[in-house]
Known about the structure:
Layout: H1 5-16, H2 23-30, H3 35-44, E1 56-64, H4 71-81, E2 84-90, H5 96-102, E3 111-115, H6 131-153, E4 159-163, H7 169-173, H8 178-197, E5 205-208, H9 210-215, H10 224-230, H11 236-253, E6 260-263, H12 274-277, H13 290-305, E7 309-315, H14 318-327, E8 340-344, H15 348-359, E9 366-370, H16 373-382, E10 387-390, H17 398-403, H18 415-434, H19 440-447, E11 449-455, H20 461-470, E12 474-475, H21 483-490, E13 495-504, E14 507-518, E15 523-531, H22 540-554, E16 559-563, H23 576-579, E17 583-584, E18 590-593, E19 606-607
Helix pairs in contact: 1-3, 2-4, 3-4, 4-11, 5-6, 6-8, 15-16
Amino acid sequence: MKDFTELLGCLRAAMATHSTPSPGVRQRLGEVEDPATVRRAGRILADLPPAGPDLRPVRVAVLATCTIGPFEHLLRAALVTTGTRPTLLLGDYGTFELSLAAGEIDGSPDVVTCLLDERYFVPRDWSAVDTAGLTEHLTARFAELRGLILACLRRTPGAFVLHTVPMPAELRDSVISWRARAAIGRAWHRLNADLLGLAEDDGRITVVDLAGELADLAVTARDERLHRYADLPYTDGALLALARQVARVVAARSGLSRKVLAVDLDNTLWGGVLGEAGEAGLQLGGLYPGNCYQDLQRAVRRLREQGVVLVLASKNDAGAVDEVLIGHPEMLLRPQDFAVRAVNWSAKAENLRQAAETLNLAGNAFVFMDDSPFERGHVAAELPDVALVAADGDPAHLVRALLRPGWFDVPELTGTDLKRPALYRSRALRTDFSTGFASSEDYLHALRTRVTAHPATTFEVGRVAQLSARTNQFNLTGHRFDEAATTAMCADPDRLVASFAVSDRFGDEGIVGAAWIECRGQVWRVLNLVLSCRVFGRGIEFAITDWIVRRARDAGATALAGRYVPTGRNKVADGFWEKAGFTPSDEDGLYTVVPATAPSCLPTWIAYPETSDDRHG
């Protein structure tokens, strides 16, 4: 077993200086498979400082039908590795149903995770010859749980995370008839299928497949002695698996998903070194190990289909690489699949930095996969926020190494997610297009940018909430309105949620901005305004402000107020309100304008579509 003394020492040192562990330390902790070490790390991390720009605060409640045991420490450690700063709110033992029935979870959590065991569903005394009766009981207990969860969701804004329940061996083996055993197995699988189906009842419910996860791990699900002695149904290994799944859900809901996969070529997307073996000598397709590299390309292609932006980062001759990408019959990824291709002999850290600038994304949006420990180490030193995936070792494990951490998880795919690779590829084309103009204003005029603005529709709420969660740089207050809060505001006559879509000569960017506005009384207040980094530098933010000002003026408002709250990551938005024509007020961070007399701040190179539809600006 590995010695994790040095890793735990790094965590203790961070806690001693009241700082957060570095991204590299957090990633190393996320790769630890020893539950005892992760549990110890979770205890150390209980002393995390309450605030800081490196970790996003999140309040997570744990309700359990059993003893929580070490789940608290395992969950805390897992959450920290994903980039969150958790506050854990633990429900009292034996109060699971009571807490849900009350409808208000103490502490106003952002997420409620439910730790379930089979005793919640299976009666203590059941008949081995009455499988129909047991099936009915399982169905009834699930219906009761479903009713409690949905009723609680009607009274609380937080999201819920549940999980499937492994079928206990005692239940299966107590039945000696193979036919009856199959019937009980079907009933149990139906129970888990019903649990997974809860996600269809409400968008704030996520159900992770713990039973499926444990089937893929070399851990024992149950310790019979602890189960009977302390009502602790799961081993530390099983609880660690669940904690990491829950942490992935929380990270995705918190907008911490990565957007970009930067990947090497030699001994990563194909076997061998192109400069040495030549195109004909590459291992790609066919038998092992060539099939492993082609399977990785399939996995990468599936990620791209779901909105992950691809960047090629390879030390090679660009011409030779193009010949392989275009002509090799076993290549599944082609040149057009990559938003940026950095194929040269420069340091990969520098190429990734330039790719981030081209895409206008921060390092924490990137995952970098490479077979060279040197290259990964250099990137870790220069760009510590970039997540690293090792592609060395047995190529049979390449796909698992890439997918297992869940870097790219999102609560739900939106239309913009599916279009993102093409959108960022268009951004790179815009960058090339811009080099032919004498001034930036000439370039912006040539783009023929159009902004469509209107109150967010039901179909746009998911994308608007996603922008709130994932936008860090142009996020004026840092206040994040989730899907439930955004939906409620859309239905409130005293609130306005607006979405802003952009298109230009290179295509449709989709919804890139959103604003949450309080319209009560004579003073309108912009609660937050966010804008995707994809469209920075084009004046879109001023077009948005112009639309809000005109809408407030038409409604008869006497003032429009906006606020800027520094978050440590939104410095790019500092000074925005003054540039938009607003005046600082006596209240710190607050800016106001009189809509009736406010001049238009619409940039001359941006147009609104001509429409009589009141939904549009």
